[in-house]
């Protein structure tokens, strides 16, 4: 539906899950932006939460809106995390990391009781992989990992920012790979990638998601695992 901001529609549905007293994980990206703004409004109206940010960008935005940020170590465990995704399939599996925040996002998701993914309708796919899979690597190993990924026919491309190498919040590199032609199960691919020394994390989120909220025009459609 033209003119409808589906990212905002999904975000506004997701923040209904956030209640006073909760410890909340805040995702990163243009969809998460609307969720953080909405939580900022709720905080102004008396909502009492503590939040953990999945990126420097999210932390800055949340603080500017008066949301209290604590470290993951202080939180220990989060009640709920709301985050975006680059692709989501029918099995609640995701590709994330288009914005480079996959490492902190995966750590936060792993330490959360209820993970909610919010997305506009363009993110819903029957098969993951049209979006290139981001892989975070230690700079010391990046060039050798690229050669290894080339040998696996994954068409690796090191992410750049302008004419500079892109660096994550953890000061690592990102390599984007093409998994569209991979025949093996995604869990095998994930295991295989994580077994390469120097690969810190991949943007495949296969098991952590509990709820997916996809906006279809003005309607937010929720699916629970
Ligand atoms: O690294 C970035 C995150 O994984 C984002 O949640 C993901 O890229 C989706 O971002 P957006 O909502 O901007 O499409």
Automatic annotation (TrEMBL):
* Source superkingdom: Bacteria
The reply on keyword Protease is no
Binding residue positions for substrate: 28-31, 83-86, 96-99, 123
A GO molecular-function annotation: ribose-5-phosphate isomerase activity
Key words, A-Z: Isomerase
Recorded hits in InterPro entries, A to Z, give: NagB/RpiA_transferase-like, Ribose5P_isomerase_typA_subgr, Ribose5P_isomerase_type_A
Which Gene3D superfamilies does the entry link to? 3.30.70.260, 3.40.50.1360
- Record CDD domains: RPI_A
Q: What class of enzyme is it?
A: isomerase
**Catalysed reaction per UniProt?**
aldehydo-D-ribose 5-phosphate = D-ribulose 5-phosphate
Q: Is Transmembrane helix there in the keyword field?
A: no
List the active site. Answer: 105
Pathway participation: Carbohydrate degradation; pentose phosphate pathway; D-ribose 5-phosphate from D-ribulose 5-phosphate (non-oxidative stage): step 1/1
Listed EC numbers: 5.3.1.6
Quote the SUPFAM superfamilies the UniProt record gives: D-ribose-5-phosphate isomerase (RpiA), lid domain, NagB/RpiA/CoA transferase-like
Q: What does this protein do?
A: Catalyzes the reversible conversion of ribose-5-phosphate to ribulose 5-phosphate.
The record's family statement is:
Belongs to the ribose 5-phosphate isomerase family.
Complex and partners = Homodimer.
Q: What is this protein called?
A: Ribose-5-phosphate isomerase A
UniProt source species: Maribacter confluentis
